[in-house]
Write a structure and sequence with these properties.
The chain has 20 helices and 2 strands. With about 450 residues, it is mainly alpha-helical. A two-stranded parallel ribbon has the order 1-2.
Length: about 450
Amino acid sequence: MSNAVSSESPSPTRLKGKFIGILVCWILGFGSLIAWNSLMSIGDYYYALFPNYHPSRVLTLVYQPFALGTILILAYNEAKIDTRKRILAGFTLYTLSTLTLILVCSAFVIFWSIFCSPFQNLLFFFPTAFQLDLATSGTGGIGNYIGVCAIVGCFGVGDAIVQGGMTGDLSFMCPEFIQSFFSGLAASGAATSGLRLMAKAAFENSSNGLHKGVMLFLAISVLFEFLCILLYAFIFPKLPIVKHYRSKAAAEGSTTVAADLAAAGIETQSIQKADNDAKQSERLSNKQLFFQNIDYELDLCLIYVATLSIFPGFLYENTGTHKLGSWYALVLIAMYNVWDLIGRYVPLIEKIKLKSRKGLMIATLSRFLLVPCFYFTAKYGDQGWMIFLVSFLGLTNGHLTVCVMTAAPKGYKGPEQNALGNLLVLFLLCGICSGVALDWLWIIGNGKF
């Protein structure tokens, strides 16, 4: 027998499933960005394939407008969109796009083996990067590059669908869920960086080692994305604590959780649907939520403007040559990702968690001092100082992101928290898009630092 939605339910502290919910949220965060982080971690592969097209900068720049345009539409219409269908559609898009990228990468090697193998002895004496570029340019290097960019655009759409939907959905649940989800996002970057370093060590001296590492990354991405579909569809909605929060949100007028409640065996009664319509009209509008939380929204925007104006383009192209050689950029990316992950767990220590709205704004603005620090360190400093700066960039990025995301939704009703979650992701993606555009300023002047 199905249950009716009611706001009179047990306290969430007495409900089971919180630990499993935290774990599932972490995996969902991990799976929602693993494809993109894999793409960033294999940047050296794309620099070998397309050395003249600034892959780390271009692919990031392609990704963000698609993500931003999608979240603009979704944030405006969030109250009319079924969250369950939205998130499952996003993970499905991720999975199909990653599979397509695997086929594109395989096509490079197939072309090489069929058309270029007669010249392998001749090309043996040429650098690997030249061989890779010749192999792809033989079919029209720019065409292949555009194909990769199109797939990256699909990643951007998937990011907006999933991240906005999950943030809105988790905003009316316990803060540990949203903290775990955003930690999972960072963990995907840390894990892919660690795997990239191991893959480079394992395959560096093998035939076609770069390609083998790439295929490993993308295959892992597909597995996690498919796992996310299963977890969100069949496990997460049936947890008692999740059913409690979604039932509470429905009782407060939310219409976005109906399919998830139905999947958990809970149906809304027709009389309560009428009540929900009345409550929905009483909720704060998106405009009111926007102005009441303008400082939090600006915080998120500016956090990612500062971060993405440096990461990853500057780290790949403007840090010079050091003792680590081809490992240098990979180590920098890995250090950023590891400390970004650590930073997202720091707010669990209440004594050092930033809660003041004014304090958050001051800390956010202070991060822009890192821009001249990176400039002078790249020009005059050694790799030790650069690694320290990258680590600090990641630590502050993760810490401030979680502080804002967990503080902003407090005090609102379920439908308002869902709307605010989408607005926060909108500003986060605005910051990323702006930061990616500003990242090009580093190469003004014939692409040289």
